[in-house]
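Quick one before lunch.
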Amino acid sequence: MQESKFIWMNGLVVPWNESNPHFLSHALHYGSAVFEGIRCYNTKKGPAVFRLDDHIERLFNSANIFGMTIPYTKDEIICATKNMVVQNNLSECYIRPLAYYSSGGLGFDVTKQKVDVGVAAWAWGAMLGAESIVNGIKLKISPFKRPSAEFMPVNAKVSGNYANSIMAKMDAVRTGYDDAVMLDANGTVAECSAENFFMIKNNVLITPTKENCLDGITRKSIMEIASENGYAVEEKKIRPEDLFSADECFICGTAAEIVPVTSISMTSIGTGKRGTITKFIQEEYSKAIHGETEKYSKWLTFVNP
Ligand code: PMP
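Model of the 4'-deoxy-4'-aminopyridoxal-5'-phosphate complex:
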C-alpha cells in the first residue's frame, strides 16, 4: 500500500500512522462497521471524485440499514473526502470512508457504542492489476454462496459481510483463478467477491437483478453509458450454465474498474480475449471518469474549487 500523509479521523486530520483503533474496538471483533470505496481521477480541470454524492448516500444508507448513526452530516463527510485528496496531494486515488463501533464493550446491544469515522485516501491502481484491464481475468464459480437479503441486507456495505468475500476470493486464488463469481442461495449468479457481473449475448448487456447483489455505482454508470450508446441492457436472473455461452463477460467495481473475463471455471468465454463491446464500454467509462464526456460531468466532484 502506498502510504499517504494524513487520515481524517473524527473531524481531525491526523498523521497516517496515528489512526490506530483500540484492540477492544467492537468493529475489530465483529466487523460492525460500514464503509465505501470511492475513486478520484485526474481531469483537465484537476482531480475529480467520481460520483461522490452517490457513494456518501450509500454510506448513510448502509448505516441506516445496519442501525448505526453516523455522528456527522453527509456534507461533512463529503468535505472530509475532498480534503483528504487535497491534503495528501493526490490526483488519482482510492478513498475509503469507514464508520465503526469503537468503544462500549463487546456485547451485541450496540446502543451505547461510540461510532468513530475515518476517511483515508491513497494512490492505488486497478485492484486486479493494470494488465487485467486489457488481458482479462479467470473467474471461478465459487463454492461459497452470496448471502441473500434474508440473511444480510445485500445493499448495506457492512464490513462483516466481507468475510464471505474473503472466503470466496481466497478459494479462487488458491485454486489458480483470479476471482470468484458467486451464486445466491437459489443458484443464480449474484456478483463477484467485490464486483458486479455482466455478460453480453447477441449485443445485449445482461446483469443480475439487484435482489442479490450490491447496487454498484460502476454497474449503474455502465448501464447508463451502454443504453445511451444504443446497447440494450437487461437486468435478469442468470443461471451458471448461461455463462458458458456468453459472447463476452466482464466484472466491474470502483476498486477493480472494468475487467474483462476470459474464462469461467476453465471454460473459455467468447474468443477467450477481451471482447469488443467490453473494450468499448471500458473506453467510454474511462472518458467519463476523466471528464472527457461533457454529459457525464454530472458525475464529477472537483476537489479544488
Ligand atoms: N459488489 C460488492 C460486493 C462490492 O463490494 C462492490 C464494491 N463496492 C461492488 C459490487 C461494486 O460496487 P461499486 O461499483 O459501487 O464499487
